[in-house]
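Design job #97: recover the sequence.
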């Protein structure tokens, strides 16, 4: 082979290798950009009741959760308790494994935990290091709690995810709940804290929203309806939270969920 032909072949091979490398790294014109992780949309970690002046060492901050537990001023707490109308009666005559202070709020969902500064010397239940959390132990029915941003929806498509701190007991699990801008409700098949994961510990975990399958939810009763998986449009979500679809067992270990800090990662959408 002549020297000139060898040079031409070498030049062609170099040009082909360069073109292939450029094709691997260069993005074709008009191609969609690579997906990116969405930012933190909101975080809520709850705050306990302020200790009254002169309160003794036996002060218990637990009680029915109210809007005062929310630390993020941009958020509203929404409580869904189908049995809320019975609370005055329960206050006068507490159900088994509950006490009167469990029934001083708008719903059965309690603000629990003992993460105070300074830590209490004694606590009625749990450990002094338990974080502030929402607890469903005295609820007589399924319940749900959500958070709503006052000025924005959240887009939970793409790589949106939810991170939370939870604890479960018995066969209870924590399930994600969403309310869309059109008013429709859905509950997810994702279940935090299956029986094999039950623990006396609060555990932090996260999951991608895209992996969740959804069923329509009747929020007035906090029950699923139908048996066909839904395909909700999650581009404009009004409320995000959790559901416990089983009644609670009362104080002491049995059946309940605790939900501490909640973080939602998604794109903000103006209302």
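Job complete. Output follows.
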């Amino acid at each position: 082979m002549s020297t000139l032909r060898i040079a031409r072949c070498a030049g062609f091979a170099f040009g082909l290798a360069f073109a292939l490398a450029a094709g691997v790294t260069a993005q074709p014109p008009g191609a969609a950009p690579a997906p990116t992780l969405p930012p933190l949309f909101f975080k809520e970690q709850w705050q306990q009741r302020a200790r009254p002046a002169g309160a003794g060492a036996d002060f218990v901050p637990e009680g029915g959760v109210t809007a005062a537990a929310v630390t993020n001023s941009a958020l509203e707490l929404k409580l869904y308790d189908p049995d809320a109308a019975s609370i005055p009666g329960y206050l006068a005559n507490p159900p088994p494994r509950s006490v009167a202070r469990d029934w001083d709020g708008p719903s059965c969902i309690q603000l629990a935990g003992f993460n105070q500064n300074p830590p209490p010397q004694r606590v009625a239940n749990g450990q002094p290091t338990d974080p502030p959390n929402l607890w469903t132990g005295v609820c007589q029915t399924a319940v749900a709690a959500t958070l709503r941003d006052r000025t924005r929806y959240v887009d939970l498509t793409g790589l949106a995810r939810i991170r939370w701190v939870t604890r479960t007991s018995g066969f209870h699990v924590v399930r994600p709940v969403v309310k869309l801008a059109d008013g429709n409700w859905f509950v997810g098949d994702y279940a935090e804290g299956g029986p094999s994961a039950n623990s006396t510990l609060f555990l932090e975990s996260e999951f991608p929203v895209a992996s969740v399958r959804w069923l329509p939810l009747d929020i007035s009763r906090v029950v699923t309806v139908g048996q066909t998986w839904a395909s909700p449009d999650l581009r404009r979500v009004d409320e995000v939270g959790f559901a416990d679809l089983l009644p609670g067992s009362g104080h002491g270990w049995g059946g309940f969920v605790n939900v501490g800090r909640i973080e939602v990662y998604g794109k903000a959408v103006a209302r």
